[in-house]
Design goal:
Elements (H helix, E strand, L loop, with lengths): L2 H24 L4 H27 L1
Length: 58
């Protein structure tokens, strides 16, 4: 898979999980909070991938 496909998959999963977390904790789905939470989740997935790959190279 190329990088764009991985990004799209992470974005879709991030949006789904963000919507579920928003519904669970805030009892409503606000598009702005879901979007920000999804951006955070996708960003953290890239950060964790960076640290995982950095550890394998050492």
């Amino acid at each position: 898979m190329n990088g764009f496909q991985i990004f799209v998959i992470r974005a879709i999963v991030g949006l789904a999980i963000a919507a579920l977390l928003s519904r669970f904790f805030f009892q409503a789905i606000n598009p702005v909070s879901v979007g920000l939470l999804a951006v955070f989740l996708v960003g953290m997935s890239y950060v964790s991938q960076y640290f995982r790959n950095r550890r394998k190279k050492d």
